[in-house]
Each structure stands twice: as C-alpha cells, then as structure tokens.
Amino acid sequence: MTQQPLRGVTSLRFNQDQSERGLGLYPCSSDSFHPPGCFCCAMETGVRIYNVEPLMEKGHLDHEQVGSMGLVEMLHRSNLLALVGGGSSPKFSEISVLIWDDAREGKDSKEKLVLEFTFTKPVLSVRMRHDKIVIVLRNRIYVYSFPDNPRKLFEFDTRDNPKGLCDLCPSLEKQLLVFPGHKCGSLQLVDLLSTKPGTSSAPFTINAHQSDIACVSLNQPGTVVASASQKGTLIRLFDTQSKEKLVELRRGTDPATLYCINFSHDSSFLCASSDKGTVHIFALKDTRLNRRSALARVGKVGPMIGQYVDSQWSLASFTVPAESACICAFGRNTSKNVNSVIAICVDGTFHKYVFTPDGNCNREAFDVYLDICDDDDF
After folding, report:
1. 174-215: per-residue pLDDT in tens?
2. CA distance 214 to 229
3. CA–CA separation, 57 vs 40, rounded Å?
4. How many angstroms separate the first and last alpha carbons of the chain?
5. 234 CB contacts (<8 Å, ≥6 apart)?
6. Which of 164, 159, 207 is nearest to 186 (CA)?
7. Residue 306, pLDDT above cutoff 80
8. Handedness of CA 30, 14, 257, 250 (dihedral sign)
9. Taking the model in full, what pTM does it have?
10. What pairs with residue 22 in β-bridges?
11. Can the peptide bond before residue 36 be classed as cis, meaning omega within 30 degrees of 0?
12. Which protein family is it in (predicted)?
C-alpha cells in the first residue's frame, strides 16, 4: 500500500499466536492460530508491542534505541524481534535485518542486537518460525536457519515482488513457504523440510489468477493457501498438496486492494480486509452459510453473469475507516456459536466484532491502541 503513514505507523503485524501475517503499509499475507496473541507496530517513533485480548501495551522500543522503523516481526511471544529500519529518521538500514534479543542484559541497545543479515537491496518483508527466518527482497527470497548459528539454506529468484509477498507455515509438521511464481498470477510453493539445501527441486506451482498476486495466506497446518489478485474481487483457495481449487469467494464486484487475508485457527472461517473499508467474513467449513447471488435461484444464466452467480459472497461484514489500512484476524470465541474478528488499523484504532453463523455481526469493542501507554520498556 502506498498511502502515507497515519499517526506515524509504518507497518502492523500480528505474531504467530494471533496470526502469522500483517501489513507493512503494503497488502500482505496472513493466518491465525490460538488466540489471544500480540501485534507489533513499527512507527516513526520506534516499536510498540500490544497484547490483543485484553488490549494492552506489553512494551516498546523508543526512538533513541532504534530510530524510526519500517518493519518489525515478533517470534511468537519470545524475546526475539526482527527489525528493519525505515521512516523519516532511521537508525538502521533498510537493507539489513537486525535481531533484537530483549533477554540480553544491558541497557545499551548494541548489546541487545545479536544478529544481522545484510543485503544489497531493501528488505520488503520478514517471516520467522521457530527454526527458520525468511527475508524477502524485490526479486529474491533468502531462507536461513534460525536463531542458533544461522546459515543460508535456500535462495529463490522470484517474479518482481514489490510488496514482498510471501507466507510461511509455522506448523511443526509442515514447513511450507509460498510466494508469487514466475508466471503472472501464479503461486510457488516450496516444502522447506523435504527440499535439500543447495539443490534445485521442480517448482510446485498453482495458477491462481490471471493478474498479479496481491495477497497470499496459508492456514495453520499449511494444507490450504488463499490468494487474491490485484483486481481484488475474488479470493481463491487451493489444496497445497493436490493444487485443486477448493472454493472461490467473492469480496465484491468493484476492484479493490486487499490488505490482509486470515484463516481462523481451525480453518472454519476466513476474513479479509481491503481499501474499501470493509472486513469480510466467509465460512469455509460449511460454505452453505455464505451468501449467494439472488440470480442463483433463477436457473441457467448467460456466460457474462454466470461467474457472479457461481461465486460465494461473505456471510458477514463490518466497516472500518476506508482511508486507513488494517490487518484482521480471528479473536477469542465467546461461545460455541459466537466468533469474533479483530481489526487493527494504521490510524491507531482497534475494532472487535462478534458474528454468528446466521450472519449477524455486531461491534463488541473499540479502542485507540496508540493512546494506551506502558511505562516499561519492552
């Protein structure tokens, strides 16, 4: 996304406990696990870390320590952060990823910077799991062992990827990496567990869309991948083993920029946010809950409108400020038939909505997270 940062926010990211993915002031990728989790806020004034439920600031790194930040990534609820400089007054370079270990003793920030990965071009995104770190440049992706004695395991050339799109499955059983393929609209999947470092394997490609990929997301076990193109009207889900298309979800008919796609922890639902200011919620486990076009009841229709009739529309939706990009993920279930979605916006607002399988959706909480302060450092 190319808009100017609001209230000094340059990127937002959920950690893997809430969702692996986020928003770097670009459309990004995502998926959600066992709530509650955390989210990281990279700012002109440093870094702030928040707990999602209940909403509270867990810590911060101020401008004197880290300067203005472009990207921040948190490894679960550990003491490790990946930092990339950015904004108007960076202390660190945009071509380097620095690993901050808050468990290290000492007040000097240099003592807490334990690793550095430096490249020749800007770093666009970073993904971490318990044993690997993935660093995305515009035309290349690097995979390193992590955090002990890091060494380069893989290096992948990619299609022009100005948004740094990729997703990494955090599952212990599956180490799947997905990113835009060389062919326009395609996805490339790599199993990092079965692929041997230093060897080339046959690319596992899914032809997902006709135009360039704008958003991509894996579910928690890595069995399903969801993607949207730059057009932003459809979200398509594919089986990562068979490459078979599982379902096609329609966000709308007007083009839009998708910021975030996220699965619920059990893959029963999916949520998505866009520059239209609407967060859509789709049913995946029981797709009969999704809305259909009224024309679907008419019977056979012409080819021009057939694509709209066949699509599934969201079972529920809610709005956030349209001028403010946001990330979204599923929150804590309040009861068996009541689920919740959290939306975090770059204008500093926090939104929580609850929804039921019949499509009722109501706001349960609203706050301004940037106005919540914690006197302690991270």
Report:
1. 899 999 999 999 999 999 988 777 655 566 899 999 999 999
2. 5
3. 10
4. 28
5. 209, 228, 248, 249, 250, 251, 311
6. 207
7. no
8. positive
9. 0.88
10. 13
11. yes
12. Belongs to the WD repeat PROPPIN family.
Within 10 Å of residue 178's Cβ, how many Cβ atoms?
26
Q: Which amino acid is at 327?
A: I
Give me the sheet containing 186-191, strands edge to edge.
Answer: 167-168, 176-180, 186-191, 204-207
Three-state SS string over the chain comes to: CCCCCCCCEEEEEECCCCCCCEECCCCCCCCCCCCCCEEEEEECCEEEEEECCCCEEEEEEEHHHHEEEEEEEECCCCCEEEEEEEEEEECCCCCEEEEEECCCCCCCHHHHEEEEEECCCCCCEEEEECCEEEEECCCEEEEEECCCCCCEEEEEECCCCCCCCCEECCCCCCCEEEEECCCCCEEEEEECCCCCCCCCCCCEEEECCCCCEEEEEECCCCCEEEEEECCCCEEEEEECCCCCEEEEEECCCCCCCEEEEEECCCCCEEEEEECCCEEEEEECCCHHHCECCHHHHCCCCCHHHHHHHHCEECCEEEECCCCCCEEEEECCCCECCEEEEEEEECCCEEEEEEECCCCCEEEEEEEEHHHCCCCCCC
Sign of the torsion formed by the C-alpha atoms of 275, 163, 179 and 158? positive
